[in-house]
Amino acid sequence: MITSLIVVAGSGLFALVHFSTPGTEMEASAVTPTVAAPATGDQSPTVSAAVITGGTFRAGIVGRVETLNPLLAQTTAEATVDQLLFEGLVWVDGSGLPQPELAEQWQVSDDGYTYTVQLRRDVLWHDGQPFTARDVLFTVRLIQDPSFPGDASLAMFWRSVEVEVVDAYTVRFRLIEPYAPFLTHLTLPILPEHVLAGTLAADLSKNAFSTRPIGTGPFMVDTIDLEKGSIELVRSPHFDRPVPMFDRVVVQLYENSEEALAAFRHGEIDALDLVPWPAVRDPRLVGDRARVYAPLLAGYTALFLNNQAQLFADVRVRQAIAAAIDRVALVRDVLGGEGEPGNGPIPPTSWAFQEQEYRYDPGMARQLLHDAGWEDRNGDGILEQGGLNFRFTLLVNVDDPLRVAVAEAVARQLGEVGIAVSVQPVPAQTLQRQLLNREYTAALFGWMSSTGDPDSFELWHSSQADIGTNVTGFRNRTVDVLLEEARRSTDQAERRSLYVEFQRLFAEYVPAVVLYYPRYSFVVSDRIGGVDASPLIKPEDHIHQLPRWYRIQE
User: Fold this and answer.
1) How many CA atoms lie within 13 A of 94 on its CB side?
2) pLDDT digits (tens, 9 = 90+) for 340-350
3) 350, 367, 473, 504: most buried, per Cβ within 10 A?
């Protein structure tokens, strides 16, 4: 489950923060089921046989679909199907850079307040009607409506943006303050005004559009039976960016992974999403024709330390904890390869990532703790200072057994340097409430980017330390300035230099210990070619490449 939180950024522009509690989390590479950790690169089958064009691709997804209106999607299954039906003005690649989709190009004003977007002139809706700037305005107005029934954080963000139609193929957006990540928010799926004109925002969920949608994507709905969990799509005759290799896509929904894996093993489906990591590594469950892909997602799981707590007020203590945790061992021994060892608050696939010199060094950890005044004076194996034992409770969400196992491993590693940790699994909602209320000492939880931009304002700026999502209470004026300037500047090189310095200071002050970056796993038959394992912003983004997939003639 990923929970969205609304936070006020800077002088008023609303931004989205996503905390990941339980999670299917997984990296950029493809593996065979017998490999312990994902290998690097695309391992689509190398064959001399011919490529088959046309035909049907059969996709399996574990989950439910109740609507195909992308503005109302709540599940990964819904978002995945919507990727094939709809488009945004841009799509964001795995490095976090916006790429043209319905937009052809854009210009940003020198002051950073205005974005002027030129649209493609050759786009048609599934019913053959032309796509225009009116559709963009219509979509944003639906979301801005006070009765909009979808994601409240999405609506709050767009209510702070003014939209203007300049001409049939030009849209202008005006912001209330400069906000460099804005382009990454233009992934918003666009709906057709000519189909939904007159529909009240409050009635969107009841409209027939939810099961018979019209989009501009590579495929369109042919037949749908949500009770049986079957959705059949056919190639859109109006889509050529590129022309999909398959004529049809049949999406079969499954209630659980066991049922879905059986269907994949028996060859009833060509691919399967939302597969548990232990299953994809077991050839008995996925079969001998499986190719496993585990791209890196734009997020991380971290040990968050309440910097206002007495135990963690001294930076040397936080540095010691970072040195005492063996992140490589956590990924190898606990996660079984389901992640990449953590190296800082910006994921390694981001254009802004800069590797830091984190290292596992228990000896250095003990020395730092000693320098901070912590010693084991009574020989019980637990450090103490002024009559206070170094003990704390580590919160973790109970509904993610893998994350609980990571917490327990972290507790054992910290125990080796004299820190006693009690792991306390709690419901996800309880954990989030305690974090936001600052009613915790330490917690292990995850964060997922909603856009792919490296903007880290909400999590680490001092203005968010008391009532925002900077739940560690970390305050550093230099970091504040870096984050403020980085979200205002529209120069990517300048932004990167600011984020490089931010990552260096994060490594020095250690407000939290980033443990690992998550992977998302999916399996594809080795009869399917063209699949790669490029990094993803969100799990459903992997299906964006499906038009380039094809069947291999054996």
Assistant:
1) 22
2) 999 999 999 99
3) 350
